[in-house]
Amino acid sequence: MTGPQKNVLRIGDGRDWHFVNGDWVDDTDGQLSVPADLIRSDGYAMQGHHYAFHRRSAYGNVKMQFEFMLKGHSDVGVVLRAADESHFYLLHFPCCGQARRAQHFWAAFSRMDDSGHLRCVKLEMLRRVPSNIGYWVPVELSLMGGRLTVSIGEHGYFEAQDSTYAGPGHVGLYVNSYYDSGFGIRNVVVDGVPGVDAFSGEVAENVLAGRVAADSTEERRSEAQPGARDQRRADRTAALLRVAE
């Protein structure tokens, strides 16, 4: 029987990954990143969310270590127990400028389901966790059964419980940012007993990306160009006005 194995995550040529809303790459100092010219892409109703699902193996009970950095108006985290793009848990650390300036650090445990929305299982402001710009914060998490425990920095602690997704699932990465630098995730290590590769890249219509077909990196780059977001908003507003008439 295979025992626990430690796996340091790297993007490499991308074959071991399933990307949503643009490719990820290996960056300097062990950082796993979305290229700067893609980070502002909204995707198809994604609101700037970028996901990378690791296909290689599935984990039931799992431990992970990583470091993250936040900037005002950014969110970084890891995916847990993913069956596909529409069913997974997300441990993440949402940040906005005002919260950062006030040294209010938030941790969240959310669940993606068929609705296409992240359902908040638990959101908590943690004491004694720094929100400073340019500071890499270490994290150690353990997901055992339906209980998640997380150590953040030197003093932060977060826990949550949910039993919706009880079986093995894939781990992954998540980022959302208004900026193209000054945030990220690096040195990601997975520790657990790997199972079979069961990840499905298929997604139901109108879930997450809003369509079945996978979006291309070139499409994402086009959408991320200056003015593209404003044009999409103007188009949506015009369509709503036509309906109102």
Q: What distinguishing features does this structure have?
A:
single chain; 245 residues; mainly beta; Jelly Rolls; eight-stranded antiparallel sheet; seven-stranded antiparallel sheet; 3 helices; 15 strands; 12% helix; globular
Describe it.
The chain is globular, with a radius of gyration of 18 Å. Strands 1, 3, 4, 6, 11, 12, 13 and 15 form an eight-stranded antiparallel β-sheet that branches. About 10% of the residues lie in helices and about 40% in strands. The chain has about 240 residues and is mainly beta. The chain starts with a strand and ends with a helix. It contains three helices and 15 strands. It has helices at about 95-100, 215-225, 230-245, and strands at about 5-10, 15-20, 25, 30-35, 50-55, 60-70, 75-85, 85-90, 105-110, 120-125, 135-145, 145-150, 155-160, 170-175, 185-190.
Short description:
By secondary structure, the chain is mainly β.
List the topology elements:
Layout (H helix, E strand, L loop, with lengths): L4 E4 L8 E4 L4 E2 L4 E3 L16 E5 L7 E8 L4 E11 L2 E6 L4 H5 L3 E8 L5 E9 L10 E8 L2 E6 L3 E6 L8 E8 L6 E9 L24 H7 L4 H17 L1
Antiparallel strand pairs: 1-15, 2-5, 3-4, 4-15, 5-14, 6-11, 6-15, 7-8, 7-14, 8-9, 9-10, 11-12, 12-13
Name the average pLDDT: 82
User: Which stretches are low in confidence, meaning pLDDT under 50 for 5 or more residues running?
Assistant: 203-216
What is the β-strand count?
15
Cα(first) to Cα(last) distance is 66 Å
What count of domains describes the coordinates?
1
The rounded Rg comes to 18 Å
Helix coverage percent: 10-25%
Order of H and E elements: EEEEEEEEHEEEEEEEHH
Tally of helical segments: 3
How would you describe the shape? globular
Which percent range describes the beta-strand content?
35-45%
Secondary-structure-derived class? mainly beta
Largest sheet: 8 strands, antiparallel
The CATH architecture classification is Sandwich
Looking at CATH, the homologous superfamily is Exo-inulinase, domain 1
* Oligomer classification: single chain
Q: Which CATH C-level class is it?
A: Mainly Beta
Q: CATH topology, anyone?
A: Jelly Rolls
